[in-house]
Amino acid sequence: MTLKKTLMTGALSAVFATSALAGELVINSNQSDPAPKAAWAEIIAQFEAENPDITVKVNEYDHEGYKSAIRNWLVTSPPDIVYWFAGNRMKYFVDRGLFDDVSDVWEDNGLSDTFASTKASMSVDGKQYGVPYTFYQWGMYYNKDIFDEYGLSEPETWEEFIEVCETLKANGVTPITIGTKYLWTAAGWFDYLNLRTNGLDYHIDLMDGKIPYTDEGVRKTFANWQQLVDGGYFLENHASYSWQEAQAPLFNGEAAMYLMGNFLTPNLPEDINFDFFQFPQIDPSIGMFEDAPTDTVHIPARAKNKEDARRFLAFIAEKAQQEKVNEVLLQLPTNSDAQPADDKFLNQGSAMLAAADGTAQFYDRDTDPAMASEGMKGFQEFMVNPDRLDRILTNLERVRQRVFR
Amino acid sequence: MQKNYTQTWSQRAVPWLFMAPALALFLVYVILPIIQSISMSFYQWDGIGDKVFIGFQNYVDLYYDPQFWTSLWNNILWLLFFMLAVPFGLGIALFLNQQVLGIRAVKSLFFFPFVISQVIVGIVFAWFYDPGYGLLQDILALFGAGPLPVLADEALVTYGIIAAGLWPQVAYTMILFLTGLNNLSPEQIEAARMDGAKGWTMLWHVILPQLRPATFIAIVVTIIGALRSFDLVASMTSGGPYGSSSVLAYFMYEQAIFNYRMGYGAAIATVLFLIMLVYIAFFLWRMLQQER
């Protein structure tokens, strides 16, 4: 075969490839870890089997790279489906007209009933802009063997919690493990302390930039936090570790508790008895609000194949698909008809979230990205140098005024 | 007369014609982006929405941003301590500049850190410093010192990263000096020896003056390396803890890519550009002088 001929066939097949695009659905995915990747491959194969006129093409990205790359596609030539996050992260793109209004998908499939718990986080001005496929609880994962050894039980109030920390520390166990190298783990603590101290409405107003960081309420939250820092309850040198590295002390029995999302549980070793408790109550007059980050799929406003994309959205909202993917992720399905996998932590999590007075997404999903990155730096600095609180809050207030001006 | 005029005209035009491709590329890929960045620094822009003209507001914000001053100070630390690469490189080059069996293998081993990627260097050093299992802690334990979390300590972190950066940079300057040492004039050394020069006198008055071109290049690449220090900061600490190891290049990247503040990032880039301009001007001035 001559070179010319090769080029010709190449060009011809390229022509055919473009003509085949009519029924092609392009999905850009951040589900690149081995287990979710396999689960999604299965779901997509099922979708193709049920819709023989559609061929699906999946492009996979790593989590961090995805977050910056998506901004480029959405304004240039987007795929037909993107994975993303609910709440303020979604609203950011909706405000800029980059996500398609999919209220029709919600209406046609009766999602308002089955997705009642996540509908608010998917809505902007009463219209829905995507379909969620999973959410998960945050809370305290702890080593039950250590608790039993020192006769401790799950604390329900702040005083009990402090007492548990004291007992553990007196016995040479690090009460709380944490790795703040990548900052967001400290934001988990801020979220819970602020939700328990000031409640959800205050928290959301703070996230929306309506309350100054130098406010008395924020100071109260930090005063509670300071009690833990001054007590020396957190893992030493936590700024050196990632969240994964901070698991080690928990798994070898040097530390007892870890405030984390449920994605921790697949890593828990078999030979230790781990359990879960809800973040303790601080102020009895404040409801029990939880962080429940929700992951979603959306149709970009400039997608080429919106019709098939809508079929895909409806498909993954189905009970069967929600169960399948969440069984692998070990998280909670957003469709209320779907059953979560029978797992000790998921059962507790779904009961806790069902009883919650309200939910937030997570600090870096609820507030503006520029505010989030400065805020989380401030949290980390506070955990290392609590005496700098005034300076940190003044700086965060300066950032807030700039970001939300 | 007419013919003469055409000739001089074409004589003048031909060099420009030959330079045109290079000039065009330089214009499109260097000059225009610089102008674009500088003009972007007067806008507030998140990368996808509308650009809003805000005048010098980004520069005013920079002035009041403690992170900017931390990053600038770290850049100065980088400039100062990265210079150690020059004497270290010279020392190793002098040490390796001998005819012994297998010296080539030894030289290539010393050159090795420069060949591997900066990101790998960063990860290796991050492990070395790790307070849990790092080699550094074992060494400190020999002297009875407790674990020292270099990368989590705001006072030590920048020095820790600079030390990691010196490892490949010393290898680079070493190679520059080694090639310089190969070109020494044997007659001059012989003559100096006849006059009784040896040791430090020989090094200072005979060898070093001949190494001046190599030294100049070594200083220039080290300055540029210090100002560009980005990969190590990104791979070892991401600017942490709480921004205390950030440098201007990383600060710019963080603001533009993670915080979606393109205009602010452009303003940081402009400041960095002005700092670099001082060195570039010095470099060009020297080059022109030498050519004369």
From TrEMBL, chain A:
Compartments, record wording: Periplasm
User: Which InterPro entries would you find in this protein's record?
Assistant: Bact_solute-bd_prot1 (IPR050490), SBP (IPR006059)
Is the keyword ATP-binding assigned to this protein?
no
Q: Where is the signal peptide?
A: 1-22
Q: Main location per UniProt?
A: periplasm
Determine if Signal is one of this entry's keywords: yes
Which Gene3D superfamilies does the record match to this protein?
Periplasmic binding protein-like II
The entry's cellular-component GO terms read: periplasmic space
UniProtKB keywords: Signal
One family name in Pfam for this protein: SBP_bac_1
Enumerate the PANTHER family for this protein: ARABINOSE-BINDING PROTEIN-RELATED
Q: Which family does it belong to?
A: Belongs to the bacterial solute-binding protein 1 family.
Q: Which protein, by its recorded name, is this?
A: ABC transporter, substrate-binding protein
Q: Which organism is it from?
A: Reinekea blandensis MED297
UniProtKB/TrEMBL annotation, chain B:
Asked if the keyword Nucleus belongs to this entry, the reply reads no
Species, as recorded: Reinekea blandensis MED297
Tell me what topology the record assigns in the membrane: Multi-pass membrane protein
Keyword Phosphoprotein in annotation: no
The name on file for this protein is: ABC transporter, permease protein
Identify the GO cellular component terms for this protein: plasma membrane
> What keywords tag this UniProt record?
Cell membrane, Membrane, Transmembrane, Transmembrane helix, Transport
InterPro entries reported in the protein's UniProt record? ABC_transporter_permease, MetI-like, MetI-like_sf
- Give the GO terms filed under biological process for this record: transmembrane transport
Q: Name one Pfam family in it.
A: BPD_transp_1
Tell me where the transmembrane regions lie.
12-35, 76-97, 109-129, 156-181, 202-227, 262-285
Q: Which family is it part of?
A: Belongs to the binding-protein-dependent transport system permease family.
Principal subcellular localization: membrane
**So which domain of life are we looking at?**
Bacteria
Q: Which SUPFAM superfamilies match?
A: MalF N-terminal region-like (SSF160964), MetI-like (SSF161098)
**Domain ABC transmembrane type-1: residue ranges:** 71-285
Q: In which compartments does the protein localize?
A: Cell membrane
